[in-house]
Design goal:
The structure is a homodimer. Chain A has 14 helices and 17 strands. By secondary structure, the first copy, chain A, is α/β, with parallel strands linked by helices. Chains A and B meet through helix 2, helix 6, strand 12 and helix 12 of A and helix 2, helix 6, strand 12 and helix 12 of B.
Chain lengths: 433, 433
């Protein structure tokens, strides 16, 4: 007799509907691949009376979480309701009821992933969350299975579709941030309240999750230095283009000498770098390993069906484990000590744009400042001063420490003839000579 | 007491040395991650007296396969000797001795993968071969785990580093195929006998493996229509550039209406397509799924350490299975019926370049031919005729069936005023209007 596995769903929004659709449409193949039938049994919704596109048998729906979490026939809980406190509570309850959990909730996993994995382990249950980073891209599995043998040195991700869409449009159509954001909202690539996306918080959550898996270290959200894209000007994109760069919001996690640097910030990428070509709403995670070298995983970072693919693949993994009776054996809890790299040990190239009074001796003074700060300059563009005798200077440093760069920003700001520092960004992917 | 797993290695060439190095250097981490120590015990080599870079305890080496295959302490055999008959024989023997097998041997898996997987299953042993396609890129796992829930529609791969290196150099440095090949040989990106690479056979083997996993169908090497890159001229690359294309040797496997099309051929890619940016010796596999949409896995397709990463990750998977006592449960044997798509059901865009006598009525005749063949033309470039009154025509069709395209090639060849058809290539990745 073929075993039957029932799933309980928490939430029936964009991702939840995709999961229901996929499990129903692919039921026969799932059953073939698993040797066991899989079906959704109950779905927790907030509002029973809401009109839905999805045709659901109404007895499936419930607004009482216990109908899902305490149903003894349900083996796997899929949490796609979002939010933190309620979801955390339900997932704990599910695990304590010996139900395996699959979640797409990056906010929750970024904040409470370690705690929930421990509850899962204590109850010999699976807790999988592939969909929480990179939507349909199987990048967490890439880290935990495919590249498990290697020492990961660096993870760089374009892991927020909204900001990548906005930056692509600004760059290609030469439109302002505000216009690009409005367009993205109209097309459904940005939410009505886009704060978490454009301020980099969404990307920061995903980076915490990626860094934890890459380095087996309990990185917390507060370890991620975060800067969004709201201040990016067309002018900088234009100068970047002249220099052969394209602007991306990048999550960076780097391990050197047992110490971890982790940030989300707008970054200029050399056009030759694989991440530079990732456009529109697409995501990509670039992983550098000591032995494997450079790899990249590319695909749709959001959307109903792509995210459902990751969720259902996780469900299938849990079902396989059930059939083999090995659940709870593959939850990875980060266990190495955490050490965050100080600013004088973080190295990078930087772009800075500023205005100075165009008077005698100014450039000699500038050169002296950079020389004293031990920063050598890779490229410099000076735009001739107009009637106001104010010159615009764009400058790219060679690799230097973040601390040195912070010092030079300070020194520039103190310079008599400086009008204003307009912007500064990290530069990545320039081929070393 | 911690369990000890011993590995027997067949072969100590480029990949074998990488595997030994990795297992030795990462021994502590491997042991931490697995909860069990892993070490290489014996290594089969052809010539005991060969000078080796690698410092090996000489008692480890043997030229007698039975010392490895019949050692009761050895649990896992890593086959990195290459070749077909001998390797097949040893792997069968290892599996029959209840040893798990990890291999990087694409030639063998392409030809005898199904048979060996059956032997593995019958003996409840693992047979893993991630390293056989895409070197360090964990793309087989991507298909079998991460995207398992989806229906794969198309796999396109740049899966031969040698030819990608040659095509990149031809394109970027405007050098001939012969010169680029000679350079590649000097730099170690092409072998002394490059036939299997440049004729597309190496890529065809990898496509057979990918297609089998993507479609769960026993595709054989002979199902892969194969064409290499030896006839590609700089002239075509130049015209391609004008049209916004770049040339790649592409393995294509496509499933439509339960029917499979599979080929390796030089293909023009629109510059916007993610595969167009994959340069030099890098590999990438682009996978299109019904639900997930477009994904791509990118990385180093060969080399000692990248390939060793894939091999050792497979070894770790086998060790984990040993500890959980679930070996032999994840070998996937393709089990769906095979149907190969006929030429009238294969659709694509095509580029063709030819010479015609530049006389009255020729273009009307050409238009008529294409109209009769039901092929509409997307773009056409006509190069003015010189003193010889011979015009060069470059033409890109809209999507049409391969059969229609073969017909038009035939009709063109029969045309009175045709001088010669110079070349024709498939075109991919052009955005549909």
């Amino acid at each position: 007799m073929q075993k039957q596995v029932f799933i309980g769903l928490l939430g029936l929004g964009v991702v939840g509907s995709g999961v229901v659709k996929m499990i129903e449409n692919h039921r026969e193949e799932l059953s073939q691949k698993l040797g066991c039938d899989v079906a959704v049994k109950r779905v927790l919704v907030r509002d029973m009376n809401k009109q839905r596109h999805l045709a659901m048998h109404s007895p499936m729906l419930t607004s009482n979480p216990d109908d899902v979490l305490n149903d003894p026939e349900i083996d796997i809980i899929v949490e796609v309701m979002g939010g933190i406190d309620e979801a955390r509570h339900y997932i704990r309850q599910a695990l304590q009821n010996k139900k395996h959990v699959v979640t797409a909730n990056k906010d929750l996993i970024a904040l409470h992933g370690q705690e929930l994995l421990e509850v899962a382990n204590n109850n010999r249950c699976d807790l999988f969350y592939e969909a929480s980073v990179g939507g349909g891209i199987p990048v967490l599995r890439g880290l935990t299975d495919g590249l498990i043998s290697d020492r990961i040195q660096e993870v760089m991700g374009i892991i927020n579709g909204t900001t990548n869409y906005i930056l692509t449009k600004m760059d290609e159509d030469s439109i302002s941030f505000d216009k690009a954001l409005a367009d993205a909202q109209q097309l459904g690539f940005a939410e009505a309240d886009p704060t978490a996306d454009i301020e980099g918080l969404d990307a920061a959550r995903k980076m915490a999750i990626l860094a934890r898996l890459a380095f087996s270290t309990n990185v917390e959200l507060s370890d991620v230095e975060t800067c969004g894209i709201t201040n990016i000007s067309l002018k900088d994109l234009e100068y970047g283009k002249q220099l052969g760069y394209v602007m991306k919001l990048i999550g960076l996690a780097k391990k050197e000498n047992e110490s971890i640097e982790i940030s989300v910030q707008p970054t200029f990428f050399a056009k030759e770098h694989p991440l530079a070509g990732v456009k529109n709403e697409y995501n990509a995670v670039y992983i550098k390993g000591e032995a494997v070298g450079e790899t990249m995983f590319y695909g749709p970072g959001a959307g109903s069906m792509p995210t459902a693919t990751a969720v259902v693949s996780d469900v299938m993994a849990a079902v396989k484990n059930m059939l083999l009776e090995i659940n709870g054996k593959s939850n990875l809890i980060a266990n190495l000590d955490k050490k965050i790299t100080p600013a004088d040990q973080r190295f990078g190239q930087y772009y800075v744009r500023f205005y100075v009074k165009d008077k005698a001796g100014v450039f000699a003074r500038l050169s002296q400042l950079f020389h004293d700060a031990e920063i050598s300059i890779e490229r410099i563009i000076q735009r001739p001063a107009g009637k106001d005798h104010i010159a615009e200077v764009i400058l790219v440093t060679h690799e230097t420490s973040l601390k040195n760069f912070q010092t030079i920003l300070q020194k520039l700001a103190e310079m008599d003839s400086l009008e204003s520092i307009q912007s500064h960004y990290r530069v990545e992917g320039v081929k070393k000579q």
